Amino acid sequence: MIKIANSTKDLREKYLRKDLLPTIFCPGCGNGQVLNYVIRAIDALNISQDNLVFVSGIGCSSRLPAYLEAYGVHTTHGRAIAYATGIKLTNPELTVIVFTGDGDISAIGLNHFLQAIRRNISITVICINNENYGMTGGQVSPTTPMGHFSTTTPYQNIEHSFNLSFLAKAAGASYVARWTTAHSLQAIKSIKKGLQKQGLAFIEMLSPCPVSKKTFKNTTEYLQYYLNESISYSPNQNNNTSAHVFKDLHECFTAQYEGKIIVGEIIDKEKPNYHQLYEDLRVRARNEFRKNK
Amino acid sequence: MILFTRQQELKNGLTMKFTIVEEYCKGCGYCITICPKNVLKESSHLNSKGYVIPEILNKEECINCKKCELICPEMAITIQKEEIEA
Ligand SMILES: Cc1ncc(C[n+]2csc(CCOP(=O)(O)OP(=O)(O)O)c2C)c(N)n1
Ligand code: SF4
Ligand code: SF4
Ligand code: SF4
Ligand SMILES: [Mg+2]
Prior knowledge:
Chain A is globular, with a radius of gyration of 20 Å. In chain A, 38% of the residues lie in helices and 16% in strands. In chain A, strand 5, helix 7 and strand 6 (201-206) form a beta-alpha-beta unit. Chain A has a nine-stranded mixed sheet, sandwiched between helices. Chain A has helices at 8-15, 30-45, 80-90, 102-108, 110-119, 164-171, 184-196, 219-229, 249-257, 274-292, and strands at residues 52-56, 71-74, 95-101, 124-129, 175-180, 201-206, 230-233, 245-246, 261-268. In chain A, helix 2 packs across helix 7 and helix 4 (102-108) packs across helix 5. Chain A has one domain: Thiamin diphosphate (ThDP)-binding fold, Pyr/PP domains (Rossmann fold, 3-Layer(aba) Sandwich), CATH 3.40.50.970. By secondary structure, chain B is of the alpha+beta class. Chain B has a single domain, classed as Alpha-Beta Plaits (2-Layer Sandwich). Chain B contains three helices and four strands, in the order H-E-H-E-E-H-E. Chain B has helices at 6-11, 30-34, 67-71, and strands at 14-20, 40-46, 52-56, 77-83. A two-stranded antiparallel ribbon of chain B has the order 1-4. A two-stranded antiparallel sheet of chain B has the order 2-3. In chain B, a hairpin with a 5-residue loop joins strand 2 and strand 3 (52-56). Chain B is elongated. Chain B starts with 5 loop residues before the first helix and ends with a strand. The chains are: A alpha/beta, B alpha+beta. Chains A and B meet through helix 1, helix 2, helix 7 and helix 8 of A and helix 2, helix 3 and strand 4 of B. Bound molecules: thiamine diphosphate, iron/sulfur cluster (3 copies) and magnesium ion. One iron/sulfur cluster binds next to helix 2 and strand 3 of chain B.
């Protein structure tokens, strides 16, 4: 059966809080685009809004839960994943989505991110990576590429940057995808896959911040950069027909230093999640206790 | 299922209906840049917040790919097929 997707107008009516529209974001900000993609993914999966919790930290990107007609928690800087872990453990029936920024997740909150991946908590973490601290005026972040200007690196950034998706993969995440906001359909597909994953899913969205991170003169140049300089990383793809496919990590990183953007589905694997293991443990412990009584 | 080409659709009296919620638009221009058929262009019209909103140049060219709808950060654009009134 072909499912006819709801029109944008219907989606807006159903999922957005109209009293808060238009959003507070600057013109051309990628946060709105990610919101758009997440709404389409939720709608396609028919997830009930009563079972949906959005959790965020602090930053422009972390304002997203406020716009959604669902449960939302706007927490403290860097701690969204810690709150989300608590919510998911208390009620594993809920679908928990974390909205976070690059500063939120990779500077102040990096440890929570890695520990949640290690435990394989079933939440979907969506990082809006605009490669700077947008909200506080464009300071350097751990994902700002080397050589870029920011308000705190006026003579260019001399630090190496993190690629959060490869970091998540190395830490053992079940699902990792990396796209720019110009990759609408791919992003929606990955968010859908992430939401269905029984384990931690991490989706990194490279996103424009035309106001605080002035890498480009205008929004059109941002979009064009994303469309023209993205190269996909597909370790499992066998046909080498496209010139724009990377299989080798080393090649990827070299390209990244040259300003290319690595996109694609970085990993998709099955591994036991915390909730299954906890349930097994609970049953086992109770049986043993009864036996010994 | 019957699939129509764009020309057949036009002959059969189907066209695209565009709705852009002016007050939500922030004039970022993503919809204009992403459209493969150059259907949209910058208008000379400002909304109440002073943003330059897009206008529809030639809606017959639209292939309903929905790229503009998807890329819009404000979810301001809706495109639907409509019947041409004779
Ligand atoms: C404990 C604490 N330290 C610092 C801040 C100041 N602060 C607010 S937002 C922010 C960075 C946000 O950057 P990011 O997570 O990338 O979000 P963006 O605004 O770029 O979406 C910082 C450092 C704070 N609110 N709380
Ligand atoms: S400062 Fe950057 S991230 Fe924040 S709303 Fe503006 S464009 Fe978006
Ligand atoms: S649906 Fe496609 S062809 Fe039609 S205006 Fe939008 S981007 Fe252009
Ligand atoms: S993409 Fe949306 S907000 Fe941007 S100019 Fe087009 S209609 Fe306006
Ligand atoms: Mg940021």
